[in-house]
């Protein structure tokens, strides 16, 4: 027996017909993000960075946009040069803030998929910025989802979640002002590089970045991706590693960040 909730959680509506068109168009052709001269509905550019309307808006009643990070097809946050990565983050945050400032959306979500288990469909590096006029994308997000074991504290705070959104391991990198976005970019780069090289003995090949403007902070949540737990899929129950493992992982990151 469970108590019934009086509130029905809002869902995003996915359009499978547009998804069919997307895969029939991009599935067996050259990367569309590499063919820059074929891109349309471009909002803003800065060097090789391009913000444009998503050509295949699979979510109904949403303004779906894409930020192409680089002309490097196999580029990634984890392997860009330091300055290039900082510039990408600055550009992405400016685009995200512009959509928020428009006042046209109940919430504006920014995230990045990387790797075969991340939920992404294109290898070319990109962020997604999605404006939702009718849905509060933060409805299920709580302050405790960003708390946990302290790894680093200065102009950038880093925690290892003890109350993750999905689990098992989630790093939270937060700043209080956009003037520190380059420092946030540096720390995210170090952590993603660690995840793709040393974490789980090199068996991690995918991650997500989720961005939040939450209370007085800008937060990037870094989530290494594996097969999703059935507890979460079936019951929305997140899992977290035991305290000993969390302490060990936090200490590993402290040493890594201090060494740099």
List strands and helices in order, with pairings.
Elements: H1 16-26, E1 42-46, E2 49-53, E3 63-68, H2 82-101, E4 107-114, E5 126-132, E6 148-152, E7 157-161, E8 171-175, H3 181-197, E9 207-214, E10 217-224, H4 230-235, H5 243-259
Antiparallel strand pairs: 1-2, 2-3, 3-5, 4-5, 4-9, 6-7, 7-8, 8-10, 9-10
Give an overview of the whole structure.
This protein is of the alpha+beta class and 260 residues long. It has 2 domains: 16-22 and 29-132, HIT-like (HIT family, subunit A), CATH 3.30.428.10; 143-259, 2-Layer Sandwich (HIT family, subunit A), CATH 3.30.428.10. It has 5 helices and 10 strands. The chain has helices spanning 16-26, 82-101, 181-197, 230-235, 243-259; strands at 42-46, 49-53, 63-68, 107-114, 126-132, 148-152, 157-161, 171-175, 207-214, 217-224. A 10-stranded antiparallel beta sheet has the order 1-2-3-5-4-9-10-8-7-6, covered by helices on one side. A hairpin with a 2-residue loop joins strand 1 and strand 2 (49-53). The protein is globular.
